[in-house]
Design brief:
alpha/beta; Arc Repressor Mutant, subunit A; D-Maltodextrin-Binding Protein, domain 2; 3 domains; five-stranded mixed beta sheet; three-stranded antiparallel beta sheet; elongated
């Protein structure tokens, strides 16, 4: 039994899929299946129960999985135990980031992290959908907004203040709203995971209480880049973090409206899986992302 075989088994068990495990490990599916089969033969027990539709741990597999995952984490620690100071960390990291934060904050600073740890390989996912950290094999994810993953460890970094903006062309055609009542004559660009007009609204705080005013819209998008582009094109007003809008406001391509009726700030959080020992490379990434993002969020 070797560590590479254990890593293959653990990844298959975490993802409940030989196919997804092979994709993430960069291996042929047959090689992954053979490795698990040899492991089971050597142990003399079935670790995974396979059907045409699912792969799940057997009772023996659940017991073995816990010990194997712990052994791999300890092996990661041992690998760096006698490395000279400053020699850097080794291994692969996979992180999921909101597109705007990746583009504007994290990736521009990434060279300094890799300069300190040139042996690391980093995979960066930038998507607006909520990835499944465990099933999709991410070491950590950075999220903006309310959290629903109760089984993950959460490191709160702060909040992003939001701002209401519209293009000069939109305001020229529709006028500048001065109150909630004026919004009856206006439209928003609607951001939604599933494309549909339902749910378009104006979010605001009334004496500290979050409220929503239903709004009309003509355009629905499911990505932040498209959301910003639609606003720049004059298709409606949007509510978005000031962090991404400041450069447009400074350039005059977007104008702020109803500053006293902004949407509540959005929490920013780093999430990672519950582990007794978090690998050093993951801890290093968590601390570095915290250092990069924290100056740009409100506490």
């Amino acid at each position: 039994m070797d560590l590479d075989t254990l890593r293959i088994f653990v990844r298959v068990a975490e993802l409940s899929s030989f196919t997804r495990a092979a994709e993430q490990l960069g291996m042929a599916k047959g090689r992954v299946s053979d490795a698990v089969t040899r492991l089971e033969a050597g142990l003399g027990t079935r670790l995974l129960q396979r059907t045409t539709r699912s792969v799940r741990l057997s009772p023996d597999g659940e017991q073995f999985m816990a010990r194997a995952a712990e052994l791999l984490r300890e092996a990661d620690e041992l690998q760096t135990l006698f490395q000279p100071a400053g020699s850097g960390l080794r291994g692969r990291l996979r992180i999921d980031l909101p597109n705007g934060l990746a583009r504007d904050l994290v990736i521009p600073r990434l060279p300094e992290f890799l300069a300190a740890h040139p042996q690391l390989e980093i995979g960066i996912s930038t998507t607006d959908r909520r990835v499944d950290l465990v099933r999709e094999g991410f070491d950590c994810v950075l999220r903006i907004g309310a959290l629903v993953d109760s089984d993950l460890v959460v490191r709160r970094l702060g909040e992003l203040p939001q701002v209401n903006v519209a293009s000069p062309d939109y305001l020229k055609r529709h006028g500048t709203p001065r109150s909630l009542a004026d919004l009856a004559a206006h439209r928003v660009v609607h951001y939604a995971d599933k494309l549909g007009l339902q749910g378009a609204a104006w979010d605001y705080l009334d004496k500290g209480v979050a409220k929503r005013l239903p709004m009309r819209c003509n355009v629905v998008v499911n990505g932040t880049d498209a959301y910003h582009a639609a606003c720049l094109a004059g298709l409606g007003m949007i509510q978005a973090p000031m962090l991404g809008m400041q450069r447009h406001i400074d350039a005059g391509t977007l104008l702020q409206v109803l500053p006293k009726l902004a949407a509540p700030p959005l929490p920013v959080s780093l999430l990672y899986a519950h582990r007794r020992h978090v690998p050093l490379r993951v801890r290093a990434m968590l601390d570095w992302v915290t250092q990069v993002v924290s100056p740009h969020v409100a506490r």
